[in-house]
Amino acid sequence: MDLSRALRRTAMRRPAVLAVTLPGATELRLEAEAEVRRRGWPVVDTPAAADLLLVCGVPAPGDAQWLDAVGGSMPEPALRVVVGENGRVADALDRARAELVDRAATRRPAAAVADVPVAPGPGPHEGHGDVHGHGHGTHHDSPPPEASAGPGDHTGHDMHGMQGMGGMHNMHAMGEVAGLPMAERGDDRDGLRLDQLHVPLGPALSDWPAGLILRCTLQGDVVQDVEVDHLPAAPGRRLPFWDEPWLRAARGEPVTGDRAARRRCAAHLDSVGRLLAVVGWEDVAARCRRLRDALLSGTSREVIGGDLRRTLRRIRRSRTLRWSITGLGELPAARARAAGVTGPALAADGDAHDRLLVWIGEIERGLDGLDDEGPLTPDDRTGPRGVLGGSRPPSQALLSLLPELLIGAEFAGARIVVASLDPDLEELTSAALSGAAHG
Amino acid sequence: MFDDVVFWALALPAVAAGVMVFRFDSMARATYALLTSLLCVGGEVLLLGLDYLGVVIVLMMTIEMAVMAVFMVMYMMNPAGLMPMTMVHNAKGAVVICAAVLAVLVAGILLAPWPARRGEPSADPTRDLGLSLMGPQMLTMMTLGLALVATIVATVVLATRRGRYDRYGDDVDARCADDPVRGGTGR
Amino acid sequence: MAEAAPLWATLVLPLALAAAAVATAGFDAVLSASAERGPAAGPREAGLRALAPVREALRLLVQQPRRTTADDRLLGRLGVVLVPVAAVLAGAVLPWGFSAVSDPPVGIVWFNAMEVLAWAAVWLTGWGPNSALALIGGHRFLAQGLAYELPHMLAITTAALGAGSLRIGEVVAAQDGLWFVVWMPGAFAVYLSSALAMAFWGPFAHPVARDAAGGAAAELAGVDRLVFLGGRWLLLVVTAGFSVPLFLGGGNGPLLPGWAWTLLKTAAVLALLVAGRRALPVLRMERYMEVAWTVLVPVTLLQALVVAVVVLNG
Q1: Is there a single domain that holds both residue B2 and residue B75?
Q2: Measured at the alpha carbon of residue A260, what is the angle toward residues A254 and A262, in degrees to the nearest 5?
Q3: Is there a contact between B59 and C113 if contact means CB atoms under 8 Å apart?
Q4: Is CB count within 10 Å lower at the N or C end of chain B?
């Protein structure tokens, strides 16, 4: 039995990680991604495949429910780690692995170790690395979270509740099965009367804007209706990570041009990487993530320039990519302007591929601004997603466009459209934004 | 002896799966029970030494049932069996019809003057099948093929709401089709 | 002409396929890791990276399976198990050098029939867990099947036409001099693309794509996940390996024995696919379908016509 024990320990030495980001925790997400990558742990996109749920950010009280649903739909040995503070990710991952290896070796039932605080911290909910165990039982029967991510929403799971209304089954029409409501029907895009399914997308999907929830009405995989929602604001008063240099400059703080250029390039690289991950070009997406982290960590232009330009050229020259995403999420400049969009989505004046090209162009231009030690002028308020300091943050305009762009799209297309706009919900939830902008 | 064992090992599941088609309360299960039954039939055909026909039954039926399951789930009530439902309608009438058909078939088996075997079984039935289809039966097969394609096209044309005027404009001269979902060849 | 393989080959086949699958997955893991973390620092690190699939398999074995609400356990399990079973059954007619576990007179049709079981397998896997994203993944594979299957069938028919036989041993024997790939390049290219599509891997991985949280595999955990995704690698090895007897001359080649040539050629095809995968994003069927039916079907028909004319005049 020692051999099997040793194997079980070995298996958990590199647990599979599902990272979930709360609004306002972009910096933490980047740190976590870099750290997990450095360790070579597998990163997965569904709770079913994960051993470790890594929550980046401090959960608000309302988040407990959907986080529990995500955690509950992980298989044994399921472990949840909450990291709320920068610089604590490595520590939290170390502790999580120790706990997982230990559990795997002893085959301890998880229920017995639930809520053991592994990390010392000020309190359970400001947790820097609280480790919660998650037991079997009813938790494992809860709906899959990527389909039921909204707080208190269980309707995402009724894919099979497509019973018809005809004949003798009418009496069951309003019923529930296994606690899940049944589907109702409606006319679809092609005039067929088919079942409608209400599926909330987010916030636990990977490569998804942190905190965004789209309450979709699907028929098949065609989006018939969508309602944009998001998680509540984080309690912190932090500036949105991607807009920070410009907001600081607007406040009169000294910010170098280098810092702003790096932040803009990294923001776009992050968006490009996520779009490519959603499109399914994992190889280049991984390169984008690596280059993004290198930029943020201050790698000089000489070191990173060649690699970065090569990668960008590869993306721009891919005919298959152009063929694959062209025509998705068509957004003419006039419509974008009317909606109040100011950033790359306005400049692109076109579809998802045009927006991708605008990002790439801005990264290449930004690369020239690297190592510029001159200060950023307080009047320069063009952040990565648009002009800061207007009546509403740039991402608000992007969000307001989502319904018209998504309705009628197929699921895959809808995800690409969202990724090609990549709204940053930190801009919405941060009260500091408007204050700083007007101040 | 071995053949007998294989025959019964395929025949019993084929019948059992056929019965289950009407017992399951989920469209997906009913469809795949039917597929199981048909796969067993394919095995029986293989047992007869008709390799090509047997394997083609497996091939075609798998594709057919996989696609049919989607349509069943799409159009039928209660596809997943989460609610009580039945695959049987008009039970009394069905029993009468089935019993009558069975009686006729059994009578046919017992009463028909089955011919005695003349000549040898073919050394390569696949080749013979091909020669027959593309030889004496060629006209039949070609007509049948065209009729099938025409039926498919006609059905789609009748079923779709959108025609070329919707796609290419009133003068059918638009460069790109106006489709809800864009295709891959840019037309 | 093919010889009958000894009985033990039946037992060795799944193990050999599994070993080939692990090696392919290892190579893929090395390339992925170098995109993710930069090139390996040395052979030791590269070796460790290549072990990732083994580690992953071990990890999934330790992980406990799970269930979802109101699932269809029977069909879901059936779908998961069917993936590797289909791969091994299709592999039974795969010749090693000049002998296969079985070389039936309709070997090519058999291969096609077994690989079509993947249609049922992926859809059932997506249907089983009663989850929206998994079902979307399952449906995507059926759309993919309708797109790739027609050009695929025409491509393998072309190879059979060139040899004048559906028996794989005879297809190999017919390539004693000239490999089919030389005068059937169109069919070969279409076959390779459909091999990827059958294995729902690489550019055709949309049924298990990341945008749908793993698609058909979204709800699989532990052993279920291992069997399904491992079966997918088996399927890739078998479908890629089948291009060797069909188009690349099977065991034919100078100096080396037949089995060595088969091994070398299979490894070369797999390496090409694994490396080439990095150049392409995932192809979505809403776009690919039109290309498959309006470009690839005519291409394979023309190819078959050329081959038929050559055969009739040869």
Answers
A1: yes
A2: 135
A3: yes
A4: N
